[in-house]
Amino acid sequence: MPQSIPEPEFDELYRELILDHYRNPRHSEPLSDADVVAEGYNPLCGDEVELRLNFENGSVSDLSFGGRGCSISRASGSMMTDLVIGKPIEDVRRLSEQFNKMMTDPDNEVPEELGDLEALQGVAKFPVRVKCATLAWHTLEDGFKQRDEGGLPPGGVVRHEE
Ligand code: ZN
Predict the structure, then answer these.
(1) Angstrom distance (rounded) from CA 6 to CA 144
(2) Where does residue 82 rank: exposed (0-12), middle (13-18), buried (19+ CB within 10 A)?
(3) How far is the CA of 19 from the centre of ligand 1 (A)?
(4) Shortest CA distance to 29 belongs to which of 52, 2, 11?
(5) Is residue 21 included in any domain, yes or no?
(6) What is the CATH number of the domain that holds 64?
(7) Does any domain span residue 136?
């Protein structure tokens, strides 16, 4: 990571949670039969994510998260999988909106349904790192868009740049 990128400081409890997701990302085994594959890249920090999505009856039935990046980007994606799997797409879109709001307004009260993602609230005070946190979510939205448009583009992958 470039030296010029500031490192937010977190309360001890939050720091532990972020590092735990970073070191042991949830749902990191790539889905082999994904309906949609969406990739995201954040050139500011060098973060890369790969999401593989399966849908069933308007819900995200399964989701895997992979890629490389800083602890914030990895923790955000890992926490996202825990929160999103099994939920109807419209609920996930609302959660995504809430998360984006949390990341752009440091004074915004964090809704309880964001769960562990609350740990990332401190990132909002570091605009240059916000993209690390939002990358996985914006990539997910791209994946949803692709689903709405009827499947994978030529080459099979949706690409998003923060
Ligand atoms: Zn990053």
Answers:
(1) 32
(2) middle
(3) 14
(4) 52
(5) no
(6) 3.90.1010.10
(7) yes
Q: Is residue 10 part of a domain?
A: no
Query: How far, in Å, from the CA of 85 to the mean position of ligand 1?
Result: 23
- Domains held by the chain: number: 1
Q: How far is the CA of 37 from the centre of ligand 1 (A)?
A: 21
Task: For residue 8, tell me if it sits in a domain.
Answer: no
Q: How far is the CA of 58 from the centre of ligand 1 (A)?
A: 31
pTM given for the model: 0.90
**pLDDT, tens digit, 9 for 90 and up, residues 118-127:** 999 999 988 8
pLDDT, tens only, 135-145: 999 999 999 99
The first and second tokens of residue 102, run together, are 């949390």
pLDDT in tens, 8-49: 888 888 899 999 999 999 999 999 999 999 999 999 999 999
**Cα(87) to centroid of ligand 1, in Å?**
27
